# Entry
Amino acid sequence: MKVIYTDNNATTQVASEVLEEMLPYFHDLYGNPSSMHSFGGQVAVKLTEAREKVADLVGATPDEIIFTSCGTESDNTAIKAAIESNPGKKHIVTTRVEHPAVKNLGEYLSKRGYRVTFLPVDRQGRLGLEYLQKSLSDDTAIISIMWANNETGVVFPVGEIAEMARDRGIVFHSDAVQAVGKIPVDVREVPVDMLSLSGHKIHGPKGIGALYVRKGTKFSPLLMGGHQEGGRRGGTENVASIIGLGKACELAVEHLKGQNEHVKYLRDKLERQILKEIPNALVNGDRDNRLPNTTNISFEYVEGEAILLMMNEFGISASSGSACTSGSLEPSHVLRAMGVPFTAAHGSIRFSLSVYNTEEEIDFIIEKLPPIIERLRSLSPFWGQSGKEA
Amino acid sequence: MWDYTDEVKEHFLNPRNVGEVDDPDGVGEVGSLACGDALKLTFKVDEQKRIKDVKFQTFGCASAIASSSALTEMVKGMTLEDAEKITNQDIADYLGGLPKEKMHCSVMGRDALEKAIAHYHGRPEKKIEGNVVCECFGITDVEIERVVREDNLMTVEDVTDYTKAGGGCESCHERIQEIIDQVHGKSHVVQHKPTGLTNIQKIKLIEETLEREIKPSLKKDGGDIDLVDVDGNTVFVRLHGTCATCAASEVTLKHYVESKLRDLVTPELVVEEIQ
# Structure
């Protein structure tokens, strides 16, 4: 069965160009870039190139890029670096809708003597800047706010947040894992101090990420070890993956020039048709400030896992904020923070597209989804009672 | 992705006996939209008190739908007496097993069947017995005791998998462990950490903990808390804002403030609210 993959905020396919670049560095060119001999040295040259490509995608200089093992490591490094290098400050500001990499670290630190403010969002998932302004104090060590949300695609006003942080002399870190490659992210225009990105969200390999650290930002490494990454991240470099990440960033620069328009067209078509064909379906998140590839739709009176498994029968891959899919018993913390009623949160489905999706695939989903929802509603004891089609 | 058996998948994709029986003899409804799953079971009996027709409607995940469908197949043709003996484990076994985290789906099936049979006999709707332990999902100590005994559960995690209790805010985990220990005949030993705090140090630490750990969380929900007095190990506090009027304030106090203070100051503390 053909797979129709619309779960690209979870992970993406490694682009064939990326894979091709990576392959020689597993078996043939396996030298250690730190070695003195030219067999290793030729690898170091490739790492330099990759660093330039990553820097280029976000408007940084190569020495401001640190390679890490993933987005989570980048987030942890940034927050821990900020609190380590500001030992007198015991306050952290973040939001209620962050990725677990930031949220759970925040909760951990709140039990270790830090005061952590989790800023609220409104029903559309938007951040109120007045809350941010009010929360800041001389004790604030770092503001860590995502560039765009992984579940709803809502884009935060990072430019204004960065200005606010700068005025107060507070370090601003942004988890841009979902934003990079989908919308322009440029650290020359938005003065963030630190920014996380991840390879596998942009058609690079899994197990590789990067952290941008603005020149002059106080830093302290998470992993102590050798002199790799200028002493900012110990451990022998994940050579093949770094080279893959470099290539993926180079492709992302290309995609930003036009192909992302195509993604937006497909997303809009999918969303429009679903809302037209299926009653009691609602979009979660601010539709005016969203990533072009993401739509999060709640189907009332049905449960998300059941929808996913029925779509799975047709090879359609998506994800849900339902409790049943998370392993926990409560629906997504993002949808709950937005005040989406449990009744709708349990039936939420996220479609996240990529440049590799085709219009035929979108049409296929539009054809298959309405009967699935109708079928599950016909099983539901609530649909007849409360639904429009009673 | 859940590791569902072929039987679960089959019953999910092709559920049997969907709908409502006309003019039913027994009706059982459990769960709610908010909880994420709900089941309505209806049946009709023949002259020999055998279930001759049975149907279900389920809102929930694949295993909830499959468990409901399986249950209807199992009880069809059974006498009410036999049907009443079906356990949640029987439902899971019929489906070749359920993932551990999904056992509560089979418990929901058994509960709906029990309710429907009670309804048939005209027994009054069983009042929820016992005291609520898990506030998030409204599960009582009696319900928890029952699954711990019947399914020989050993850990809090097991109890969550079977009843959902403890799957939300997790503040009831200690109480669930106590119930498990009681059922398995272990006496619950409360461990007291020796503390070397003077009264002044204790009061200071209580104040600091309220400021740093407790107030910020209450403020998030629009409430606030003031320290009024400390007498020995009793901490008197006053609540403001939404906390003061919220029906759950008793719970907020007992479970949250007290456990925080016990964790961070000394385990002997008791919190009392002053109106």
